[in-house]
Amino acid sequence: MSSKLDQLLASLSTAQQLASELQSELASNIPQSLQAAAAAESIKRAVQPAPFRAFDILFSTFRLPAVRTALDAGWLEAITQADPQTGITAAELASRSKSSPALVIRLMRFLAATAVVEEVGTNTYAPNPLTHFLLIPGWSAGVRHFSSAYPGATAKMPQYLANLKYQDPPGAPHDLFTYANGAPFFTHVSERPKDLDAFDSFMVVARTSLGPTWLDVYPLEKLKVESSDDVLLIDVGGGRGHDLHAFAEKRKSLGLEGKLVLEDRPDVVVNSSAEWREDFGVREHDFFQPQPEECVGAKAYFLKMIMHDWPDSSCIQILSHLRDAMKPGYSRILINDNVLLDRNCSVVSAASDMAMLTVLSGKERTKAEWQELIGKVDGLEIEDFYVMEEGGRGVVEIVRKQ
Ligand SMILES: C[S@@+](CC[C@H](N)C(=O)[O-])C[C@H]1O[C@@H](n2cnc3c(N)ncnc32)[C@H](O)[C@@H]1O
């Protein structure tokens, strides 16, 4: 070896070879694949010259619109159907979508450079695992949701925060999304059925592709009801009921009895499928209002990705209504949200916090911030934390003080 730099390049080449050989093994082992990705990222940060790292930031702005365009035009779908060895040409993509071949080449060049597709010949593209992944309906809904909900508001973030003199953003109507779009997020999407559908469909997959779920870490045997007529679990703001459906499947093997209830806004629960509705009752309910009589004294009130949507003041209102519905010594609130690390937060968790700031003045919280929030609701206390991945998703278990 002539120098340490040669050694580094040789080691990286070996690592590259290993990574491509282990692709399918890594895909089924998320913790280890994240560990490998973190090591690779730290090497990239150490070796990439600063101007190119700066370009990464500046040019990242085009990634989402380019993917969205290729999805809308049908190019990504056509590529996933192509032979992985020979691919499909830009001319063929252009002919199928009646597009300009030169334009297809420009967009596809960028998507190949950013590894969304493979370039298997000049102007010829084949799918990789990410191309296929982006075609999963919930994830293409995620692309539609992010590209329609966020850019208008993020463009105005610097001015909005300067106007606020860099204080914590207040809730609607003084939040960033309303500042940029003239209406709060949930009002805005309610008036746009395609955007609402994209958001709700993305919610179904948003956290389920990330590895273990709350059902894998929370001791479900704690959720025993006194009688089978009692309410076992209410999914508060549960979307179309995907988590409740998964819980209903899981409880069968655990002998957990009791009723299940889905609560959400009217235009959301209406889209809960008939098949899922066999597992649970459905209620239109605004979580800023008290629980209805039938939902008082449930064993568990489950809130997934709800608290992170809202600033503390709104969370306190939601939690106070649940506290009033809880039976002391029996009921519990289960919050399934991120529990951030105090330092070295992952990009996904830190970016999720930015998304929450943008869309509803919400926030992701550290353990200390969860303690502080729950401490502000009279009569509630945290009993335990359960962690799905360190610094990421977890369950905060809350009981009513006796
Ligand atoms: C981030 S999504 C989470 C959905 C679901 N819990 C999940 O994890 O996939 C937030 C949910 O809160 C619902 N929501 C928003 N405002 C609400 C309100 N005032 N009352 C009840 N549900 C509301 C939305 O319709 C949406 O389904």
Automatic annotation (TrEMBL):
Lineage of origin: Eukaryota, Fungi, Dikarya, Ascomycota, Pezizomycotina
Top-level division of the source organism's lineage: Eukaryota
Active site (UniProt): 308 (proton acceptor)
Originating species: Baudoinia panamericana (strain UAMH 10762)
Leader sequence residues: none
A Pfam family assignment: Methyltransf_2
Protein name: O-methyltransferase C-terminal domain-containing protein
Claim: Methyltransferase is one of the keywords in the record: yes
GO BP annotation list: methylation
Single GO MF annotation: protein dimerization activity
Start and end residues of each O-methyltransferase C-terminal domain: 176-375
Keyword line: Methyltransferase, S-adenosyl-L-methionine, Transferase
